[in-house]
């Protein structure tokens, strides 16, 4: 049975116009597709810097080997880190040495979705409008990878600007685009761990600390791997505001930031509630110390090394301050410590005596002992402060003098430690002019390696180096060069000469010159030239200079490595021309090294940041003397410590060294310069003590001569060196030449059959003390 057809309860729909909805859809797709195309083209244009509109991008090679500045490290011969050269103090660390708490703190704070994105956090980008509506306009969406791109490639510096970068509103978009592009490329080239390692090795933490390795040492004096949870949180908190959150200057603000980092770690389940509560309850405990050029081992030496390596770096296209080089030096850290300690111990006492010596008086005096007028006013014109004021006020004397006399709060050096004072620049100059200074160098004469170098009393306050940079008259420490020439001309150590006056006739307007002995007169007694050198007798030295000729003395000085200008004048044998400790130490080393002059050597090798050897250094040597002459001079110089009346007998009688030591003291006019040179079979030491200006000195040989003002440094130093058996300095006698000597050295028949020596255990009496007195020019 068929049912009749019925109408539907729903009216039939009108047929839609063909293409109405599909046209809108197509429009959306066109707009979307066009936007994508524009975005692609824009991104491509930025990446290739189309028409230089956007500024350059790092190339693929740079991305594969991103470079941040790494501090170059300087090591001692015994493997101790001495210091660094840097513009940015950064030393990288491996990922394995990063504590998990540090990594977790960084991710929780800076990029919680770090493991899930490929350089760009689209979820974070999409949330920006929401947070802007809420008023949080400072909230960013940069991922850790984008931040790394910004740090590594300086995307926000002017050197990366193109033509459109100066259009208002476009600069930020272009910069962000670059960071997105680089971030994606970094994610393609590196693992997440590598990106985290690069980030933590690159980030700035303030206080001149770049990278977490230096930051951990600066703030906590420990390596990163030993950081605690709260210490890790504090360092991560510094990344986005190194100065604002600095725990030294802003401790309360720093703690709030640290605790917020800990709360983020708790929020994202990196730590549980008990761990969070325990961490925030702890106070900030710092072991704060900022690395700089004033700190570390042998700062004067490291400064000189940097000067010597700059030309090598330029020639080999290396950056001494950014390439992370490893520089291995000749310094022995133990000897360096003992040298610095000896300088400090002796100079503190010297300064105390100097202050008492000039108490209530000004020490800057002329040759006649009269006060030098306007000394400070003249001296201050040589300072950087005066030049700055002169430029600032166009030479207006009233303005300049006002600021030179204006008192400021400042820190000054003292032997009791730094102290804060109110001083004017003129006050400060007067204060420091009263200080005595010193220089010390020790080298191995057999290979030229410098083992200790102290260029001054305090590098932070006195940058001037008195080892190589400073040159002063060496006084009688120059006499061995005269005696070397004499030995080479056939004179025996036992050759006799009376202590009488020698006069150099007037020449070319120069008045006749008769050098006097230290005591002012002549005894008329006969001495061997070995005794004469031991007693530092001017009369016999003058006779030798006259016999040999000043030109011969100068030629021997050059042969022994003296490069400073030496005048061929009658006073040449008494050290009238300026030389350095550096030069004189090299000259004396020739005596110990069988006549072979060896240039003092500072560096043994340089490695790149990966440990590849870039250069190895070898000693520079040349034959300067015969082996016999060199040994005879070593024998002659021992007399200073063994002969009665020798200027260095205190080494035997006072310091009681039972070993063979060659020595020579030196003192210049008015006691402006005190010198001492000491020799053992494998160590030659040179030292100087004096004022910054030659007009500042002791007034008496009882204080200012070399045996008093300089020699004790050597005694203190060698006492420490001999006591440290790990150094292994030689205590053996000086080695004799392989061939028998051709001349006589046993001078006992000239002493009535007895050696005129001082037993090691004999104490000095007043007569001996007078005999030790050194000489003037």
Automatic annotation (TrEMBL):
According to UniProt, this protein's pathway is: Cell wall biogenesis; peptidoglycan biosynthesis
- Keywords for this entry? Carboxypeptidase, Cell membrane, Cell shape, Cell wall biogenesis/degradation, Glycosyltransferase, Hydrolase, Membrane, Multifunctional enzyme, Peptidoglycan synthesis, Protease, Transferase, Transmembrane, Transmembrane helix
Residues covered by the Glycosyl transferase family domain: 82-265
Instruction: State the Pfam families in the record.
Output: Transgly (PF00912), Transpeptidase (PF00905)
InterPro entries xref list: Beta-lactam/transpept-like (IPR012338), Glyco_trans_51 (IPR001264), Glycosyltr_51/Transpeptidase (IPR050396), Lysozyme-like_dom_sf (IPR023346), PBP_transglycosylase (IPR036950), PCN-bd_Tpept (IPR001460)
The reply to whether Hydrolase figures as a keyword in the UniProt entry is: yes
Transmembrane regions: 27-51
- Provide the reaction this enzyme catalyses: [GlcNAc-(1->4)-Mur2Ac(oyl-L-Ala-gamma-D-Glu-L-Lys-D-Ala-D-Ala)](n)-di-trans,octa-cis-undecaprenyl diphosphate + beta-D-GlcNAc-(1->4)-Mur2Ac(oyl-L-Ala-gamma-D-Glu-L-Lys-D-Ala-D-Ala)-di-trans,octa-cis-undecaprenyl diphosphate = [GlcNAc-(1->4)-Mur2Ac(oyl-L-Ala-gamma-D-Glu-L-Lys-D-Ala-D-Ala)](n+1)-di-trans,octa-cis-undecaprenyl diphosphate + di-trans,octa-cis-undecaprenyl diphosphate + H(+); Preferential cleavage: (Ac)2-L-Lys-D-Ala-|-D-Ala. Also transpeptidation of peptidyl-alanyl moieties that are N-acyl substituents of D-alanine
Q: Where is the Penicillin-binding protein transpeptidase domain?
A: 439-681
Subcellular localization = Cell membrane
Question: PANTHER family in the record, alphabetically?
Answer: BINDING PROTEIN TRANSPEPTIDASE, PUTATIVE-RELATED, PENICILLIN-BINDING PROTEIN 1B
Q: Which family is this sequence assigned to? A: In the C-terminal section; belongs to the transpeptidase family.
Question: In its UniProt entry, what is this protein called?
Answer: Transglycosylase domain-containing protein
Query: Which species is this UniProt entry from?
Result: Hymenobacter lucidus
């Amino acid at each position: 049975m068929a049912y009749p057809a019925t109408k539907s309860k729903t009216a039939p729909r009108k047929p839609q116009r063909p293409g109405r909805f599909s046209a809108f859809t197509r429009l959306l797709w066109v707009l979307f597709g066009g936007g994508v195309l524009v975005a692609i083209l824009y991104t491509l244009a930025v990446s290739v810097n189309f028409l230089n509109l956007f500024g350059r991008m790092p190339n693929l090679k740079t991305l594969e080997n991103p470079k941040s500045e790494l501090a170059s490290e300087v090591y001692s011969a015994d493997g101790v880190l001495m210091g660094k050269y840097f513009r940015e103090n950064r030393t990288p660390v491996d990922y394995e040495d990063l504590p998990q708490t540090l990594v977790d703190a960084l991710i929780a704070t800076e990029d919680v979705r770090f493991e899930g994105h490929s350089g760009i956090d689209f979820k974070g980008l999409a949330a920006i409008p929401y947070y802007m509506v809420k008023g949080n306009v400072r909230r960013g969406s940069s991922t850790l990878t984008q931040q790394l791109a910004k740090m590594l490639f300086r995307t926000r510096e002017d050197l990366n600007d193109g033509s459109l970068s100066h259009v208002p509103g476009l600069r930020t978009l272009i910069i962000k685009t670059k960071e997105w592009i680089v971030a994606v490329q970094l994610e393609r080239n590196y693992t997440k761990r590598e990106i985290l390692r690069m980030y933590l090795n690159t980030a700035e933490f303030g206080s001149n600390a770049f990278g977490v390795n230096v930051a951990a040492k600066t703030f906590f004096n420990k390596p990163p791997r030993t950081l605690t949870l709260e210490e890790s949180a504090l360092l991560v908190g510094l990344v986005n505001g190194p100065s604002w959150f600095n725990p030294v200057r802003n401790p309360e603000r720093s703690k709030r930031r640290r605790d917020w980092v800990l709360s983020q770690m708790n929020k994202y389940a990196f730590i549980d509630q008990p761990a969070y509560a325990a961490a925030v309850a702890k106070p900030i405990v710092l072991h704060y110390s900022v690395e700089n050029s004033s700190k570390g081992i042998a700062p004067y030496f490291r400064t000189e090394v940097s000067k010597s390596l700059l030309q090598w770096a330029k020639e080999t296209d290396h950056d001494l301050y950014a390439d992370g080089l490893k520089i291995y030096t000749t310094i022995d850290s133990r000897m360096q410590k003992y040298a610095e300690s000896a300088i400090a111990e002796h100079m503190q006492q010297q300064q105390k005596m100097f202050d008492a010596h000039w108490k209530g008086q000004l020490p800057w005096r002329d040759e006649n002992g009269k006060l030098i007028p306007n000394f400070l006013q003249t001296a201050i014109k040589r300072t950087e402060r005066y030049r700055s004021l002169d430029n600032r006020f166009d030479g207006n004397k009233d303005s300049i003098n006002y600021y030179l006399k204006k008192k400021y709060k400042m820190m000054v050096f003292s032997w009791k430690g730094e102290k804060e004072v109110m001083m004017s620049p003129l006050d400060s100059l007067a204060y420091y002019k009263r200080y005595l200074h010193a220089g010390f160098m020790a080298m191995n004469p057999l290979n030229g390696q410098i083992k200790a170098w102290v260029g001054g009393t305090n590098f932070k306050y006195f940058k001037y180096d008195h080892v190589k940079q400073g040159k002063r008259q060496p006084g009688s420490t120059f006499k061995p060069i005269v005696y070397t020439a004499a030995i080479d001309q056939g004179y025996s150590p036992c050759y006799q000469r009376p202590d009488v006056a020698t006069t150099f006739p007037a020449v070319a307007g120069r008045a006749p010159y008769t050098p006097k002995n230290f005591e002012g007169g002549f005894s008329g007694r006969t001495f061997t030239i070995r005794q004469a050198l031991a007693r530092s007798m001017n009369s016999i030295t003058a006779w030798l200079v006259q016999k040999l000729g000043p030109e011969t003395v100068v030629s021997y000085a050059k042969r022994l490595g003296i490069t400073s200008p030496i005048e061929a004048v009658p006073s040449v044998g008494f050290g009238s021309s300026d030389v350095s400790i550096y030069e004189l130490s090299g000259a004396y080393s020739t005596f110990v090294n069988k006549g072979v002059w060896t240039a003092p050597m500072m560096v043994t090798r340089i490695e790149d940041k990966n440990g590849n050897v870039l250069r190895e250094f070898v000693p520079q040597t040349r034959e300067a003397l015969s082996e016999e002459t060199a040994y005879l001079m070593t024998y002659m110089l021992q007399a200073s410590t063994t002969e009665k009346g020798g200027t260095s007998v205190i080494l035997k009688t006072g310091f009681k060294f039972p070993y063979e030591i060659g020595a020579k003291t030196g003192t210049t006019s008015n006691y402006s310069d005190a010198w001492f040179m000491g020799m053992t079979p494998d160590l030659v030491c040179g030292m100087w003590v004096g004022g910054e200006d030659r007009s500042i000195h002791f007034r008496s040989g009882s204080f200012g001569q070399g045996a008093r003002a300089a020699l004790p440094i050597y005694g203190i130093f060698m006492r420490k060196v001999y006591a440290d058996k790990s150094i292994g300095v030689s205590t053996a006698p000086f080695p004799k030449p392989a061939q028998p000597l051709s001349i006589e050295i046993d001078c006992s028949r000239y002493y009535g059959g007895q050696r005129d020596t001082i037993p090691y255990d004999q104490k000095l009496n007043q007569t001996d003390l007078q005999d030790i007195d050194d000489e003037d020019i």
